[in-house]
Each structure stands twice: as structure tokens, then as C-alpha cells.
Amino acid sequence: MGITPKAIQDLLDELEASRASRKRAWELLQEIRWVLKDVTGVEAPLPAKKTIDLEGRLVKDGVRKALEDRQKVISELLDAIRGYRKLADQPLTLRGSEYAQAVQTLNRAIDRADRFLR
After folding, report:
1. Could you give the CA distance from residue 62 to residue 118 in angstroms, rounded to a whole number?
2. What contacts 76, CB < 8 A, 6 or more positions away?
3. What are 31-48's pLDDT values in tens digits?
4. What's the count of helices (H) and strands (E) in the chain, helices before strands?
5. Do residues 58 and 37 make contact, with C-beta atoms less than 8 angstroms apart?
6. Cys-Cys with 109: which of 17, 80, 86, 104 at CB 3.0–4.6 Å?
């Protein structure tokens, strides 16, 4: 029993659908790469070999780094705000050098967040 022309055509159709799917996936990864660089400034490295798997991993790692960086900046800013609030509630006469330090820490965290968003 041989392979029928319909079976061959079905395989060719499946192969073409697979190629089209990979092309759409590659284009989508390139769009995500562009958004990542445009919005966050993170530029994912190019893959050593042009494959969907490698490109997907590199873009995923870039997205992860961008989100982790943002999370870190937000956490530092919130910690600085909490430290400032804790000391700001004290009467002026009880505020010591810790208050000045809290203000400086808060200002640095604000500056970092501001730079991060530009």
C-alpha cells in the first residue's frame, strides 16, 4: 500500500501551516522585543542562531529583567516612603539625624524611580 496523493497533499498543507505559524511567532517575538526596548530600555541580546526557541528564551529573559528591575525600584521607593513617614510623624524637637537620612534616602529613591521611567 503506497502513499496516496491526498496524504502527500495533507502533509504539504500541514508543513505550510507550520511554517506560517513559526513566521507569525517570530514576528510576534520581534514586536515584543521592540516594545521591551521602547518602553523599558531593556535590549535583549540577539540569538546566536535564528530559532524560535532561542529567541523566545531571550525575549522572556528580557521581559523578566525589566519586570524585576521595576519591582526593585518600586520596592525601594516604598521602603523609603515608609521610613520617612515613620520619622515624619514625630515632633520636630524629637527628629534627629535619622530624619535627615530618611529624607535623603527618599530623595534618592525618587530620583532613581524618575530616571527609570524616562
Report:
1. 18
2. 109, 112, 113
3. 999 999 998 888 999 888
4. 3, 0
5. no
6. 80
